[in-house]
Amino acid sequence: MPTSFDQSVIAEFRANGGKVGGPFAGGDLLLLTTTGAKSGKETTTPLGYVRHGGSLLVVGSNLGAARHPGWYHNLLAHPSVRVELGADTFEALAIPAEGARRDALFEQVVKVSPGYADYQAATTRLLPVVVLEPARPGEVATLADKLLEVHTWLRGQLRNVRAEVEAHFAAGPGDPPGLGLQIRQRCLAFCQTLEFHHAGEDGHLFPGLAPHHPHLAGAFARLAAEHRTIARVQGELAALLADVGAADPRRFRAELDRMSAELNAHLDHEEAVVLPLLAGIPWPPARP
């Protein structure tokens, strides 16, 4: 739960298009909404940020305390987050930087906000630097557009994870140890979004379409069966992500190859069957 002080900052931020007074007056501030690692409930936290290209950097300083802040533990469990910046709200992927990249980004943050150096000096804990990568949705006018947007995101994240894995293997001779947080966060976000997407299709989309298209009963049954096959591969990936430091990278790459083959074939098939049925349905749906 946000503190009473945080709640007052959040209220002022939202009431004034991102502008606040007090200790944050004139500073760069955003609101980060994460999903609780244990509770599953959303929590919003005001944080300072630094721009880095098209991304935003936030630091888990916790004012130099010995423990990481709660929002950092939350995003490790649920990498997909929501960001409020000024009057804009958007979804983002939260990826903690590691090693030399973390150090370089922290130096960049300190140049803009020197106070973070004081927080680092106050603790032996290495302050995490988190990169927030905003999602960039396309034009969505129909339910077909929305489905294609989700599929495009899933395909893109899977490509990103595969590229990270290949870079991991190319980094040095021999079997590289573990997987690293960057691979974990991207793959975890992909797996969680995929699970949510398929649950929505199985629970709502397909049952809603099937009575109107009885000639496609076999196609819907096949799509549901493909979901179950993909879920088994997803389960293998999730088990490997549980301990990225000890995970076997070669087994992870093999499971990722399986996921890539199964999912891309499934998405191609689903788009051929379902997109024509959704093209005339407006998105977002009209309010009753």
Automatic annotation (TrEMBL):
<dbReference type="InterPro" id="IPR012349">
    <property type="entry name" value="Split_barrel_FMN-bd"/>
</dbReference>
<dbReference type="GO" id="GO:0070967">
    <property type="term" value="F:coenzyme F420 binding"/>
</dbReference>
<dbReference type="Pfam" id="PF01814">
    <property type="entry name" value="Hemerythrin"/>
</dbReference>
<dbReference type="GO" id="GO:0005886">
    <property type="term" value="C:plasma membrane"/>
</dbReference>
<protein>
    <submittedName>
        <fullName>Nitroreductase family deazaflavin-dependent oxidoreductase</fullName>
    </submittedName>
</protein>
<dbReference type="GO" id="GO:0016491">
    <property type="term" value="F:oxidoreductase activity"/>
</dbReference>
<dbReference type="Pfam" id="PF04075">
    <property type="entry name" value="F420H2_quin_red"/>
</dbReference>
<comment type="similarity">
    <text>Belongs to the F420H(2)-dependent quinone reductase family.</text>
</comment>
<dbReference type="InterPro" id="IPR012312">
    <property type="entry name" value="Hemerythrin-like"/>
</dbReference>
<feature type="domain" description="Hemerythrin-like">
    <location>
        <begin position="143"/>
        <end position="278"/>
    </location>
</feature>
<dbReference type="InterPro" id="IPR004378">
    <property type="entry name" value="F420H2_quin_Rdtase"/>
</dbReference>
